[in-house]
Amino acid sequence: MDLPFVVTTLTRRGLLTPGRPIRVASQLNALRRWGWSLAGELRQAAARDPDRTAVVDEHGTELTYRELLDRAERMARSLRAGFGVQTGDRIGVLCRNHHGLIETIVAATVLGVDAVLVNTGLSAAQLATVTEEQRLRVLVHDDEFAERVVALPAELPRVDERAREELVAGALPGDLHPPERDGRIIVLTSGTTGAPKGARRPTPNGFGPLVSIIDRIPLHTRDRVMIAAPIFHTWGFAALQVCFALRATIVLHRRFDPAATLAALVTHRCDALFAVPVMVQRLMEVPPPDPRPALKVVAVSGSALPGGLATRFMDVYGDVLYNLYGSTEVSWASIAGPAELRAAPTTAGRPPHGTRVRILDATGQPVPDGQVGRIFVGNEMLFEGYTSGGARESRDGLLDTGDLGRLTADGLLFVDGRADDMIVSGGENVFPSEVENLLAQLPQVREVAVIGVPDEEYGQRLAAFLALHPGETLDPDAVREYVRHYLARFSVPRDVVFVKYLPRNATGKVLTRELRRYYA
Where is the AMP-dependent synthetase/ligase domain (predicted)? Predict the structure, then answer.
């Protein structure tokens, strides 16, 4: 990335504002020694603004950057001394958004340990599979998940909220040095095709990734930012990284509630909100507060914006909406700002500086403007592969997103959907085939098909079509509860439709288009 662009962007966003020489020197030294990992980002923020509030929890807990760093280091020393955790190990983090989650992730990166961010919607069975396949050394979890983790192997140490506080309070003194290798952040993708796949996120190697985002999304140093998107998601974690880099004050709630979120935005005088589209949809379902939050940025990612939502939201809260299209594997591909969303509410925007987007056909050749093809992306934050050893297809340094889309002649990207049968519901990736296989095990079921159907709130949702054996009956709520028991909550079909038979073609393949016509 060219130096003039970096310097110009950092200056515009306030990162090159002069400060006390000793603090600036300490800040730069932290980055020199610890690099651009989350541990390095927190250290540079604590060196430059030690007494600035770093995190505000929903119950009023406030921690300065100095205090947050101290607690994370205490956690790191206790993990090392109490559990023998060392560089190269992996720990699981099953937590909602609060300061303990941040402390645990930072503690892992301080030690050079991989932090596996566990989706809080996973079932007990999926969690057991993740624990085994990711070879977790320790699992840190919120109290609300106590029943879900009880069936995990007895030899796996589990740290609940009380134990976590004891680890922080009772940490033994000791020195911490930069690890021999950076700890990786491992994000679990999908979570609905058997075992979720672990995607290794790279560590930034400079200002490039930051300036690519803040050039297009106008966030500034010392902003006050509410992260509503789950931090176990790539988007929520990216928000945390950006906030540390900007030395922002971060506001967190464990669960998203639209009225409580709006109240917090006003109470804490937030400049920005990071969310997923379904959250924006829900904000529109409650009356806006008086006064309304003085937001400058509402940044969303994770799924497509439902049609018309962008315009409706900006009509109420101003032209502050920014939509980032990307994935765990490619990080970001494009960003749509308010002007672009006003002109074309369903656009994914344009690639930011340093990012390449190409639309290719099945043979890897570029398609003409306006024609649908596979979306390939290249930037400096492409993922490092799955923990299972797998990878995604790449061509000329560009990675396959798995999505289909098209580019207009003036460079706007539009995403048309997944290349396979996966749907995205409320920011979660859902594969119908796994739900089909599960429902087929019910003795009453003769045949079943599960498809994605449009949903104004979540973008898409699952609809299950079941044909039963003669004389058998099933209750729709019982079907949903059965799926909920084995799979993540976002895999539960909202619609359960009983049919006499499934439409098939001559080769026996279910005609999903007929099911959609029947549904409509």
Answer: 43-386
Q: Where are the beta strands (DSSP E) in 379-510?
A: 394-395, 398-407, 413-418, 423-425, 428-430, 445-455, 459-468, 495-498
CB 145 within 8 Å of CB 92 = no
Q: Which residue reads 């033994």 in tokens?
A: 172
CB 95 within 8 Å of CB 141 = yes
Q: Which residues pair with 399 in a beta bridge?
A: 377, 394
3-class secondary-structure state, position 428: strand
486, 123 Cβ separation under 8 angstroms: yes
Query: What is the DSSP annotation of 130-141?
Result: HHHHTT-SEEEE
280: closest CA among 296, 256, 264? 256
Q: How far is CA 320 from CA 158, 292, 294, 352, in A?
A: 42, 13, 10, 18
Q: Is 293 helix (H, G, I), strand (E, B) or coil?
A: coil
Over residues 462-516, the pLDDT tens digits come to 999 999 988 999 999 999 999 999 999 889 999 999 999 888 754 356 788 788 8
pLDDT (mean) for 82-87: 95
Q: Of the candidates 336, 252, 329, 346, which has an alpha carbon nearest to the alpha carbon of residue 298?
A: 336
User: 331 with 378: CB under 8 angstroms?
Assistant: no
In DSSP terms, 315 is beta-bridged to none
Q: How far is CA 238 from CA 189, 297, 370, 375, 450, in A?
A: 15, 15, 31, 22, 33
pTM for the full predicted model: 0.84
Rg of the chain on CA atoms, in Å: 23
Q: Is 216 strand, coil or helix?
A: helix
Helix (H) or strand (E) holding 299: strand 297-300
Q: At what angle do helices 234-246 and 208-216 cross, to 10 degrees?
A: 100
CB 296 within 8 A of CB 271: yes
Residue 324, H or E segment: strand 321-327
The whole-angstrom separation of Cα 15 and Cα 162 is 37
What's the confidence (pLDDT) of residue 507? 36
- Exposure of 257 in the CB half-sphere (CA atoms within 13 A): 8
- Give whole-number Cα distances, 154 to 105, 151, 205, 313, in Å: 23, 8, 39, 49
Residue 215 corresponds to which tokens in the numbers above?
Answer: 């050039």
pLDDT (tens digit per residue) in 429-455: 777 877 887 898 899 998 888 998 888
User: Which of these, 52, 372, 59, 6, lies nearest to 209 by C-alpha position?
Assistant: 6
